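Help!! Second protein's tokens look totally different from the first
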Amino acid sequence: MVTLLTCGLAGAPAQATSSSGVTAAFARAAQKYGVPEQVLESVCYLEGRLSAHGGQPSMDGGYGCMHLVKGRSTDTLDQAAKLTGLTVTALQHDTAANIMGGAAVLRAEALALAPKLPASVSGWYAPIAAYSHASTRSVAGMYADAAFKLLATGFSGVADDGETVTLAPQAVAPDTSGLASVPVAAALPAGCTQDSNVDYPGAVDCVVPAATYDCNVTSPCTYQSSSRPSSFAMYAVTIHDIEGTAQDALSTFQDPNSGVSVHYIVDSDGTVYQALREKDIAYHAGNFYYNEHAVGIEHAGIDATGYQWYNATEYLASAKLVAYLLNKYNIPLDHAHITAHGTTPAPTTGTSPNHVDPGKYWLWDYYFGLIHAQGVPYPTGNTPAAGLFRVNPSSDQAPLGANGTETTANNSFFTLYTGPSTADPVIPGASGTDPTDETTNIETQMPYYYLAEQADEAGTGMEMYQIWYGENDRLGGSSPSQYADAKLAWVAVPAGSAVPVHSYVLSLKPTTKNGTIKIYGRPTTSSTYVIGTAPTGSEWAAPKSVFEDGTSNLWFAIDYNHREAWVPNTEVTVVAWY
């Protein structure tokens, strides 16, 4: 049932509601079923932005602005039809009918919790939580919190019939005392329990036992017990997608022969499962250095079709989890510290390439905004140096589909060319046209440093920025290699989407006379981890620096191509910094 819209949506095809409009429909439903108008308006705006969405269901099988669901574990659509006498077709397609059905279900939820309807708006917190039909009580509370936040802030939106619906801000303190009585909808997966023995409050406990899975105890195994952050500093969160469902992930991570693990799993309905203690080292990032220093989070979804998977509920649940982690471990809110599996380098050319998840449909700006809304500040510092930029396009700022879902127009990858025109060849990379490939593009919200900019000579309206980029030009040779070579290339981005960003700017300088700098897959002094080169004098954005474990050697992370890479302090000159 849960969708939890948290941003504006693109309009859907208009649907007739009634001759008297949507506002009148709220009034009639409130009068008939005793649910306050502002509660109905809040849920309708939260779930469906006042729209019937052409009668099309959400990915959870929910219809209309009240998100009446017909799914495996919930059937409020047929319940609404039985309670109201309206047809299922009307409930699916007509907003006025959908509002009436939602009101009937909300009344039933309230009477299932107490013998009388709540006497005030504040008392509708628990019935709204129950209306979510969430699989855990924490997600049900998240749903009710979102509805009451809309009551507090107010909103104005346009319904399918063209009528503007406005809810003024309400000074309402929610009565959360009934949340403990709200039933949850689904049985927990095997190996999981709902208890308080978790690091993140509200997570479902699916932590695997050390005796069967800990590589310090047994073999085969899936993780390494540790005592982080005392054993290893924790300064990153790695975002993954599962390439399947949450149950697929649990099945994998509960298999001691899989050799892989992760700390958290976020389902599409907002449920958070903890599969490993934060203090322990999960095998998730494809680079053991990152495993040592990061918390890994898997998300239900498939990167190539992420627009069909990533929804507002999943984003918000993950954002709340990440906000907790950032506050707990003092991790900055930016893409240098909230990394993708796809921006994590492979440690050596022998293990390249690394994975590409969560892919081009993960909306980083939208996601960071949700984390920021949990009270986590954005990094601040000096005025960003001229030439520093991150890509912040409209396609990365909100789901563009119905019910908090995305469309193929959502996009966070942008392509590089050999010259200042999109008519020029794309830079060398992996063969094929796989949209998830990361050898010829960059990702939004990561800092880069440009040497020149101009309008696309092909006349598309795109803006072209010349940057240094670690090209995989050796993949097409007679002896293909993942070794990268830094070249100048032009990235095409929507005009106006390149915005300032805080980062160091580095100029590379060689310690030898051969004119090239070795680029590493992890900040460790060993030729084993060299994954590419860059010429002396090349300039790079470097959003973070760390000391090599167990030493005083300082390293800078540069955004080398689509991924991070590392250079030692001895081979850089800091040109500018934030």
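Here's the second one for comparison:
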Amino acid sequence: MTRPKRRLLIAVAVLLLPWAVPAAASAASFVYSYRCDGKILTTPGPEQVGKLCTILANGPAVAGQVHEIRMAIRQRTLGYVWMRATLYTTNGKAESHPFVVPQGEFELDASDAVFAQGQAGTQVRLMTWNLLGGGTLDGKDYTGENLKQLIEYVNEVNPDVFFVVEAYGSETAILQGLNAGRATTDLYSSVPITVAEEAKYRNLWLFTKLKVVQRYTERPEITDFHFGGAKLQLPNGKHIHAFTVWSRHEDSVFAPMHHAVVNAQFGKPISPSINTILSYDDTKRNAQGQAILQKVVPYYVKDDAPVIMGGDFNAWSYRDWTGQFAKARGHAGLTVPWTYTKQYVDAGFYDVFRYINADAGLYPGRTWSTKSGFGAAPARIDYLLFRDNKAQMRVLGARTDVRRLPRHQGGYLDQEYPFYSDHGAVIADVLVTGTGPGPNRPIVMEKPEYAPGAWPAPPAGTPIPPAELSATASTFKPHVGDPRLAVDGDPFTYYHSWYPDAVDPTVSPAQPHFITVDMGQERTLSAVRFVPKLAAVFSAAQNPVVNMTGTPLRGVLEISADGTWWAQVASVTWPRITGPNDVHLDGVKARYLRLRVDNGMGGATAIAEITPYE
């Protein structure tokens, strides 16, 4: 038998002086160029710094061959990686996902290899997700509709390995739903990780299309409620070790980090301190990490096959909060050396999502919380991790999902639960080298969240001073939620409606709610900025609590010359993120602005600041 031809080409690190590599200096047989603002460039200049670009690879196309192209953009002086991509092509053309051109000198590291078709490797789709009470929304959905929609969504993702947290009795329905109508060669098997008689204790699960060789059962160092897995065999005979993880959720840092970021953004003291926030990992999670990495994984994994973990780690990413991303949106200049996730970094594990989406500012990847809001600081607590001692695995793409499928939007479930759980799902495509055609279906990709700057720049124009503004509202909480607080210039005060469950509906009418701003005279407006409430409240123990109830999600902006006759100028929607949202008006003339909030989180309306610009 003739051995399939395989030729490896040496990686080339090309120094870009001062901005980019010329095409003539490309790696091996491929020529590289850049697509920036729709233009193809060989040498991006200083005017492209901070802009979104992609890298184009052009090379030979030979019948019966597959090219693998690996590239990275690295800042030369600091060594920061801003982009990674692994691409496969049979026609000699490939394009990376977007990256932001960094300041100063940077390098393009590029290499390519060629494989005979059928020898590039096997694509595997991974998915991890906390299902919130087995898809019942923690028991709040008695109809079963959310679980039904959840299964439809997972079927569209179509993972090969599905790491599940909070199965809680829905595992049989999920398996049946995933396998309904599938070919016999495409069926899932169910691997129980947490073994318990009562459904409410059956936490961790694996669903997989791969052959299950061995199930990794409970070890004394950590219970199967928190960790366990299986050895899975690929179609080409190779295998991987797959583990589902749920780390302790006590001492959540979501509210303290929101509070820290908001205060740092506006120059206020950070309380609790970063050291106090870091100590929350010490309570339970760090001991679990030590047990997993030092005892359990070494007990089961005796070879160099790839190790993959998926689950809800209830901890923030060490790599996201290094100095590289201190100026990113939602970081407010802060660096936080998270101890729990750093244990996995030190043990040789890579975060799949951050590995392929290297820029935490451009690709924040929030997974918490799709229900109660994402807050001011990007909270990523659900991960797919991998360890690959023999470089047998390639990360092709990864994304987070935090929104229902279009056909599931608009219904009663969607109003309170815009996703099927309070956690986002993490999906990734990887390739294990060896026999196989290489990527054989579209790669999952994250959409860039292009938002330069730690806090959004103000819209064009001049802000109207608070002293020239007044405000009224259709409903408000006296003193603590007076509408005047929305135009007082202080982002730490806010207007707040009564809650919709108040006894007297004349005091607390259901949405829509109206808040009206009188600008004192007719103005020619360029924009209006809305800032949702920023301040955290404090518990009796003086711990910060984030309550995004009232954050507007959908509404209409209206204008008037006399406060009687109103005209609609914009339909507005906002993400569940604590940050300013601008509506551009382009010369609209009005004395009065009125925001009609049709849908606010929790049925209430809250706004920290309304600032018109002229």
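Reply: Different proteins will give different token patterns, so don't panic. Residues 466-613 form a domain with the Jelly Rolls fold (CATH 2.60.120.260).
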